[in-house]
Amino acid sequence: MTWAISFGPSLVRYIQQDYWLTLHDHNYNYLWPPAQIADFTLGVVTASLVLRQANKEDALAEFQAPDDGALLEGRNCMNNHVLRGLMADFSLLVVFLLVVFTPTSGFQVGWEPLFDHGVSIFFAIFLYGSAAGNGAGNFAKLTSQKALRAAGAYSFEVYLFQYPVHKLYFIWDKETAHNSPEVFMTFFLSLWLVAGLYTEFIEAPIVRWLREITSEEVSVGAAATLTGEPGIGPPSSRVAAE
């Protein structure tokens, strides 16, 4: 349902306009914040299904006795992990084939804007499937390698910095910024470098400092509540002490 809400309007407009979407359509369907609510909801539903399944498996492992019924449930869980892994690999393969072999219709015009929301259902299936058993499917196992997981530690910062770093490269060289493999690799490596430096030397120290001061305030407030010392802690404890 959420996928239909996110993808449906683009598909309807695509058909109404003689199978064509304009750059304005793309900007409206992708950059306008409310247009992402349905995809966000789809992600929330997917995460909820993953947690529900994981909690069910944990409960079976903890409370069932090692009898034939428990062994059968365990075997069913393993079969479920295999099936979800196949679902994950298949959904990612579908996205790959669509992106690579669909002929281009122009930059963010034609049918290309259908990719803004059209493949979100396949990403949801991939997330649900690959989350089984701490990583089901061949692609999940491949990306679970230590080096790739280390690079993934900066993925959110890469997302934040990719646009400004790309703009800097575009200002530097407008002619080859979009079609030069050398410029792309330089951009790619410098982007991860900027993201890593920011994470390690700016974000991490600030996060540690905030956690330290907030933990100290919580400790002082808890101590004041227990001792009844006036002037310290939350208002309720001060009123009670007075």
Polypeptide structure, described:
This protein has 242 residues and is mainly alpha-helical. It is built from 11 helices and no strands. It has helices at 2-16, 23-30, 37-63, 68-101, 115-118, 120-130, 138-143, 146-152, 155-172, 181-227, 235-241. The radius of gyration is 25 Å and the shape is globular. The protein starts with a helix and ends with a helix. 16% of the residues are buried.
Give Rg in angstroms. Answer: 25 Å
User: Overall mean pLDDT score?
Assistant: 82
Helix/strand class: mainly alpha
Q: Note the beta-strand portion.
A: under 5%
Order of helices and strands: HHHHHHHHHHH
Largest sheet: none
**Which range best describes the helical content: under 10%, 10-25%, 25-40%, 40-55%, 55-70% or over 70%?**
over 70%
* Record field, number of beta strands: 0
**Assembly level:** single chain
Number of helices: 11
What gross morphology would you assign?
A: globular
Cα(first) to Cα(last) distance is 57 Å
| Poorly predicted residue ranges | 231-242
Tag the structure with descriptive keywords.
single chain, 242 residues, mainly alpha, 11 helices
